[in-house]
Write a structure and sequence with these properties.
Protein name: DUF401 family protein
Helix content: over 70%
Keywords: Membrane, Transmembrane, Transmembrane helix
Shape: globular
Organism: Pseudodesulfovibrio karagichevae
Number of strands: 0
Strand content: under 5%
InterPro entries: DUF401
Pfam families: DUF401 (PF04165)
């Protein structure tokens, strides 16, 4: 019995720290503060004193990786806010709607397109579009909510503007192409799963979709003009990152991402002169921006406390690698994702632990397969979470029953999770 307690002690300490984090998230004290409390508790439980913990935290916030990541996430939020506030996102939707002929495609297209522009609670931005597209179709509000929620998130594991992807790249020291070349099946899997459960003829018949949406004039030039900031951000970030890696490997690739995002923000400002410098002052004072920056601060402090306290080494010393790997690659990402309802939470809270376990076991060559597994597990937790802000806001907008609507996403989420496990065994 004593030997079992000794073996379980490090895991119990880690579990207690995560329970503190999850409790903080549930009590809505703020994601950053919840992660920070969990990290401090873990440091204390593993023998670090208050002064070493404080010193580790200060040093964590002077790293280049942290500064670049804070700049990137800040610019993404500024770009999203500028496109929304100026009405450019809406104009882009209108410019592209004339190219759509299939009723089912219209139901998918607008939430998927809005999904290219990461923003907290972004599903509520596409909800009015789903309502407009389907107002003469025989579809329940619950179905409208599910369609909006599911297809809004089809890009989240591959799109380089999502903070979860950016944070994964920073923590694992990967380039975007290295990660996306393995996670790309997530998007077709979500599209196919969404079609099967929500859109196939057996679910939505031809009679339900007989009323077409009035077409607007097709204009490629208008679509290109309104979508130019997104093109600059995406193509510029990927192109500059690749160029830096090829021709100047000593230069941090994040320079390219920051430059592309800054250029995209300037493009929006030039296209919408009414925004002015006053817009920048307003967006820089927004609570949501600084809340996200505080989360990134907490994640980097947590990561370095984890390393300084020797948490991973202690877990590996007293237990087999399989137990540590399962906890860090599958169970904890799913649990944190489900409780927090946001990708940044499970990436920031569990990936440092996973990467540390892999390093301690000499399995660095298996980093990407385990990252893929943890990403699919964590994202499944996020999508199945009843407190996911997009889910709550969508159900609120369509005035539908939360529980009945939530049950509709459980089966496709489990299919998605199974596909992630299958990919892991294919890659490992």
């Amino acid at each position: 019995m004593d030997s079992l307690l000794v073996t379980l002690a490090p895991f119990l300490k880690v579990l207690f720290s995560f329970l503190l984090m999850l409790a903080g998230m549930r009590l809505r004290i703020g994601l950053g503060l919840a992660i920070l409390i969990g990290g401090v508790a873990m440091g204390l439980l593993f023998g670090m004193g208050p002064l070493p913990i404080a010193k580790t935290g200060v040093l964590a916030l002077t790293q280049d990786k942290f500064l670049f990541l804070a700049a990137i996430v800040g610019l993404i939020l500024i770009l999203s806010d500028a496109m929304e506030r100026s009405g450019q996102s809406k104009r882009l939707m209108e410019a592209l709607s004339g190219f759509l002929t299939s009723p089912r495609l219209r139901l998918v297209f607008f939430p998927a397109l809005i999904g290219l522009l990461p923003m907290p609670g972004g599903a509520v931005f596409s909800a009015p579009m789903i309502k407009t597209v389907s107002e003469d179709m025989r579809i329940t509000n619950s179905d409208r909510a599910v369609l909006n929620y599911w297809f809004r998130h089809v890009w989240e594991l591959i799109w380089p503007l999502y903070p979860g992807i950016i944070l994964t790249l920073a923590l694992a020291d990967l380039q975007i192409i290295d990660l996306v070349s393995y996670t790309w099946p997530a998007t077709p899997i979500m599209l196919l799963t969404g079609w099967f459960f929500f859109l196939r003829p057996g679910v939505l018949g031809a009679k339900d979709l007989t009323v077409p949406m009035p077409l607007t004039t097709r204009s490629k030039s208008a679509a290109l003009r309104e979508g130019l900031p997104l093109l600059i951000a995406i193509v510029g970030a990927i192109g500059l990152e690749t160029s830096i890696a090829t021709f100047a490997p000593s230069v941090p690739f994040e320079f390219g991402v920051v430059a592309a995002l800054a250029a995209a923000v300037i493009c929006v400002m030039v296209q919408n002169t009414q925004l002015g410098l006053n817009f920048l002052r307003q967006v820089l004072s927004k609570r949501s921006l600084w809340s996200m920056i505080s989360v990134i601060c907490a994640i980097f402090v947590f990561k370095d406390i984890l390393q300084a306290a020797g948490v991973v080494q202690e877990m590996a010393r007293v237990a087999g690698g399989d137990a540590a790997l399962f906890a860090s690659a599958a169970f904890l990402p799913f649990l944190v994702g489900m409780v927090a309802g946001i990708n940044v939470a499970f990436v920031g809270a569990t990936f440092p632990l996973l990467l540390g376990v892999l390093s301690s076991l000499g399995m660095q060559d298996q980093t990407i397969p385990y990252i893929v597994l943890a990403t699919f597990c964590g994202f499944t937790g996020v999508m199945i979470s009843p407190i996911h802000i997009c889910f709550i806001l969508t159900c609120e907008y369509f005035q539908c029953d939360l529980g009945r609507t939530w049950r509709k996403v459980v089966a496709p989420c489990l299919i998605f999770l199974a596909s992630g496990v299958a990919l892991f065994f294919l890659y490992v």
